[in-house]
Amino acid sequence: MMIKLRFLLILFIFTLSCSDKNGEQLGYTLINVHNLKDDGNKLIEMVSEYELIPLQYAGAESLVSMIIKTEITSQNIYLLCSRSNGSKYLLIFDIEGDFRRKIEEISSDELISSKVKYFALDNDGQLIILDDKNNLLFLDENYDYHMHTSLPFKFDTFYKNGEHFLSYANLHAFDLQPDSLFFNLMVVNEHFELENKYMPFEINVGETRYHNRIHGNIQPNLNGFLFTEFLNDTIYEVDEQSMMPKYVYNFGKDRVDKEGFENVHISPFSPILVEKFKWGLNSPIETEKYLFAHYWDKKTPKGILYNKTNNTTAVHNPMNLLEDQDIIPWPKIHRDGYFYGYFTEGDFGGMDIDRIINYPKTSSVKQIYEHIQANANPVFVKYKINN
């Protein structure tokens, strides 16, 4: 059952700053973050309406492990989940949160059993699966095998926007790897012909290259894709023609200087990151008025909301909202005019449970907590931001 709560006052704790547009002379917008201080100010309401969408499953256990990708259409919610051993599976719920199907392996007469690695949807909502054998599998409306294509080079993840696919490749590459090109990003057309490639790298003979990324660092936008790297301060706009910086975040002295760590392998949540730096810029979501992004300030997650209309920036600290009785999550995706985020069981680890239980029935936090306690599955929140 979908619980609908509309036109409630949702208060966020933000810190405000003006952003510098000098970067636009170079073709990008510079967004200042380094000088922001959390003074506890509360903004006016930003959310005009929202709905809680509890994910429902008849079984006794949670279906959902770590969510690494979300996609939403007018009919379905798609979640790509990863277990602790790295194996992945796709869950499909209808738009009201009722469970429909789990896809982990796909078999057919033409294809020996393949395991799910990643997924995307085409313009018509057809489900496309990247398997562990470097094939793209196209499923029919019943999520059964329809056809497949063997890819010309190694995909680690892929994204669909219009007629083009953006491949993020080479997380793990070695000097004589035969099935790949040594670029991080590659764009192919609908016939899987290579149209462009970005971010080249080299590997010395006899060596192996391990690369890291953060899930959500590529998101479609109106002109192609937005891309970030976890040791970078820049959001790039990527299409089949070019890759250009669009937004640069000024982290000041807390910026990671990659040139100072040329011979050091730094992975997400490395001690040096959580002790000294702002890092992990990812999950860019752009609308006509706003740009959302996420990063870590040492080991604290932060959200950045940039208002393109009035050139201001708000930094959101989710830890400051744990005692509020009505909150919404930072968005994971924006579709058809709505933002979507979710709460999981782990999000309640730092909250005062006794206080939540005593909230009124109208409290969104209480309703989310009660659902998760009863069903152990996440609750999605669909919402609109005031213009």
How would you characterize this protein structure?
- The protein is mainly β and 387 residues long.
- The chain has a single domain, classed as Methylamine Dehydrogenase, Chain H (7 Propeller).
- Helices cover 6% and strands 44% of the residues.
- It contains three helices and 30 strands.
- The chain has helices at 271-276, 353-357, 364-375; strands spanning 3-6, 14-18, 29-32, 47-54, 66-72, 76-82, 88-94, 99-103, 105-106, 114-121, 127-131, 135-139, 145-150, 157-161, 164-168, 172-174, 183-188, 194-200, 208-210, 218-221, 224-227, 234-238, 243-250, 278-286, 290-297, 300-307, 312-316, 333-335, 338-343, 379-385.
- The strands form seven sheets. It has a five-stranded antiparallel sheet. Strands 2-27-26-25-24 form a five-stranded antiparallel sheet.
- Strand 14 and strand 15 form a beta hairpin.
- The two termini are 29 Å apart.
Index terms:
5-stranded antiparallel β-sheet; 3 helices; mainly beta; 387 residues; 44% strand
Q: Main β-sheet, in a few words? A: 5 strands, antiparallel
As a percent range, the share of strand residues is 35-45%
Count of domain modules: 1
Whole-angstrom Rg: 21 Å
**Could you tell me the number of beta strands?**
30
Protein structure class:
mainly beta
Name of the level-1 CATH class: Mainly Beta
Helix content: under 10%
How many helices? 3
Termini separation: 29 Å
Could you state the oligomeric state of the chains shown?
single chain
